[in-house]
Amino acid sequence: MPRHDQGAPWVRTRLRTAPVSAVAFGLLVLVTAFLAAVLPRAVEAYETDGLREALTTAAPESTVLELKAPQPGLEKPEEARTDAVLPEALAAVEDSARALLPEPLRADPAESAYGVRTGKSLEALDASLPRPDGLPPRFTLLAQSGAAGHATVREGRLPTAGTPVTVDTRVVEGAVTAETARTLRLRAGSELTLAGFPDGPLTVRITGILEPRHPQRSYWSAEPVLRTPALASVGNRPPLSYWEAGVLLAPGAAPALLGGQGEPEKYWRFAPAAGGLTAGDVPALLAGVASLENGPGLVRMRGAAGPTAQLSTGLEQVVDSYSATRDAITPVVAVAAFGIAAVAVVVLVMSAGVAAARRDVELALLRARGGSLGGIAGRLLAETAVPAVPAAACGLLLAVLVVDEARPLPTVLGAGAVALLACAGLPVRAAVAHRRPRAHQERDDLAHTRPGGRRTVAELTLLVLAVGSVAALRRRGTAGTGDLLVSAAPVLVGLVAALVLVRLYPLPLRWAAGPAGRLRGVVGFLSLARAGRSPAAIATLPLLALLTALTTAAFGGSVLAGVADARDRAALLETGADVRISTTDGTPLPAGLARAVREVAGVRQVTTVGIEYAAERASDEARSLPVVGVEPDSYAGLARQTGLGGFTADRLGARGGVLDAVASPEVAERLGRAPHTIVLPGGAVTVRITAVRPRTPAVPEGEFLLVDAAELKSSGGPSILLAAGAGLDAKALRAAVRGAGSDLSVTLRGEERAALSDSPLQAGAERIYVWAVVAGAGYALLALVLGLLRSAPERAALLARLRTLGLTTRQGRQLLGLEALPLALLAAGGGMAVGWATVVLLAPGIDLDRLALPDASGVTAPGGAALRADVWSLALPAAGAVLLAGAVAVAQAWWAGRRTPITHLRAGDMR
Question: Quick one: CA torsion of 657, 658, 659, 660, rounded to 10 degrees?
């Protein structure tokens, strides 16, 4: 057949006929595919960031992998023992062991080290060294590699091993950090005489004072005493303290340690490289660590380091803690993902419904002329695939560009699912609507349509699923991983509520239409009649999208509000007020500090307190009861303002030599309400408890006893300053504190609050919730617009007919606005009710502790991370839905009014 006899191609013709619709449909698919593709990538990205931060911020002694082997056996020749601990031999083992680390575990060469150390610290014999309780300090000697690359020499030089060092060497060179030198009064040229050698002590000549370049990293912190000396104690009563410190020897001096009783051991420390790890590597990482500690990996390590080598690490505890936090957050985030996915599916189905309704007459004509369902569906599939598939591919590419470092499979599956739904929506909708040829359009409005048996069964099934998910969530919470039904509980509740409201929607319209028909005007009656005769699809799908979106927004807003409240509460319990200033050693505050703080901008209230410890009975040796001396008026005002155990100032004072006191519940239970004598450092005091409060600003957590500081004659003075205010200038405040005195600690509630949201896991989950709420709201509004656009031609034709009968432009706008109002009010009211009910139903099973607070163990202070309905999250989205529905209706009336009635009443129009 000649080419011109074949006719124009279907797809090209249809796309040219409605280019605006095709472009709008492509944009919808692009945005939806982008969201579906970027969501798993964003989740994996913040989980990966959380894993890396957990490894980098954890104490190096917890994350480093330490491979240890005892000193060479005494049965070996001395030369062989010496050669086994020389740097060359240790370096060869280090190379072999690093290559044996299982995937995905990799070592960071810059922070890894190896050497020989004394497993038991050696006692120093020098009388010039500080002895806190008369006990001599003890030193751990480390012949560790890489000192030149990790320290700056502040004084002297690095230690060397110029002459060959043997087991019998008794003089070696060493270096200490600047902090060790300052604490133990050492300098370049000092000598340490260490016991523990059979034929005389070991002399360590200090040749250099070192400043660590990265003191918090593994090289210096895997053995903390190497960087900073620490006080240790022996188990006497009372305990006696002594200093523990480290000395860095030259790597070649390791043989000298073999001749003593310090239990020398070879070690290889591998700092894990967190930069290449992802959240998906956690199972393999834990399996690899377990293998290295007690499995095939340890066998291979022993092949390199010796048959008695052992590998130890706390890395699995760090990863387990991260995994527990992630597993607690994931189900809560999944709620937001299910919500936005449900609304997006409804919008895509609605877009297919709008296209099918616009072409209903065309498709009915094709069926009447013998077109097969398969042929029509295939052409429609090709027509929708042309804009949908490239748009989905662009959304996928955009998601990859926006968020990198994530697995491709979830991204491809998300975008592919959107493309499949977008392509199949119109063909399936058309095939169902035109499965039988028909001569005319049947009524499908709410007043005429009756639910069938299949719909009833489907709705009951959905109800059973919703009840089961809510019951499971309330009973066992979100602790179970991978349970999608539990995470879908809010969405299922919203869907069930939408289906119930759709069944009830015609009833109030019928009840209101009767009284409206008896009014003089026609606008009210016509609007209610039109709303009741709206096609079922126009009412059902937008209502479904709006309720689901409003439920998700209410639930998400309540989650975010609960997280914010918990963080505010935790920050307040950390500081007790907006500002907390204290001396580092418990001495009294400088005299002019309170006045200087009052002059800082934003400070409204200042009070000072002093804390002493008392014995509850004269026979008690230990003083463990915190007695807080306060100024009654200012402190009572601060307590009321912060909400931490507020009371009136008259609760404190003195009557007849007995001090009135405010106590915590535990103290009140032990002391009783009768006068009771306690023993302070300055003498005995009789107190009477006049009020009981669970907490107080000076001691936010724990027991306390508040008294009037003016009545404590032997008090040493206040040591803590508390201040409250708004808009505090942190720089000016710190400058004022520095000007008032030194050795003062300043803690700001705002800074503590900001630190609680720094964790990538918490911050990432919070961002997902915010964007899910925003996207859900956008999809819900789009669903409302699509519902109104579907009936726009019919509305315009009706308005034109009524204008020919005398309806004014103002009445036309009122008519369309009131017609859209019942559905919007139903969605808004139902959304608020369902959102509130969802939060109330699911609150007992939602644990926000780990989402709100980093390193939370699942228990917070009373009034902490609890899920509560947030009024603004309920009201604002509902009000927005009503306002948008009215705005769209008014805009449609304005647009229709610009065109003449003849345009809408052309002969042959089936409207």
Answer: -140
- Mean pLDDT for all residues in the chain: 83
Which range, of 38-47, 435-444, 452-461, 866-875, averages the lowest pLDDT? 435-444
Prior bond to 70 cis, omega within 30?
Answer: no
Nearest-angstrom CA–CA distance, 24 and 35: 17
What pLDDT is recorded for position 507?
A: 72
Give residues with Cβ within 8 angstroms of 302, minimum separation 6: 308, 309
Whole-Å CA distances, 764 to 47, 63, 167, 853, 895? 8, 24, 57, 13, 43
Closest by CA position to 191, among listed 260, 235, 139: 139
CB 893 within 8 A of CB 817: yes
> CA–CA separation, 477 vs 554, rounded Å?
19
Residue among 868, 803, 875, 789 nearest 832 (CA): 875
Classify 31 as helix, strand or coil: helix
> What global pTM score does this model have?
0.79
Cα-to-chain-centroid distance, residue 182: 41
State the DSSP string of 61-88. HHH-EEEEEEPPPTTS-HHHHHHHTSHH
Other beta carbons within 10 angstroms of residue 901's beta carbon come to 15
Terminal-residue alpha carbon distance, the chain: 40
Q: Is 162 exposed, middle or buried (0-12, 13-18, 19+ CB in 10 A)?
A: exposed
Q: Are 268 and 311 in contact (CB under 8 A)?
A: no
3-state secondary structure of 659: strand
β-strand partners of 583: 744
Given a contact cutoff of 8 angstroms between Cβ atoms, the answer to whether 342 and 548 are in contact is yes
Beta partners for residue 156, in sequence order: 208
> What average pLDDT score do residues 21-50 get?
92
DSSP β-bridge partners for residue 142: 117, 248
> How far, CA to CA in Å, does 260 sit from each of 204, 246, 476?
14, 17, 59
DSSP reduced 3-state for 11:
helix
Q: Give the span between the Cα atoms of 568 and 861, in whole angstroms.
A: 12
Q: Torsion angle, CA of 581/583/587/591, rounded to 10 degrees? A: -50
Q: Rounded to an integer, what distance in angstroms lies between the CA atom of residue 541 and that of residue 347?
A: 8
Whose CA is closest to 126, among 203, 41, 214? Answer: 203
Please write the tens of the pLDDT for every residue from 218-243.
999 998 899 999 988 886 656 788 99
SS (H, E, C) 297-352: HHHHHHHHHCCCCEEECCHHHHHHHHHHHHHHHHHHHHHHHHHHHHHHHHHHHHHH
Question: How many other CB atoms are found less than 10 A from the CB of residue 86?
Answer: 18
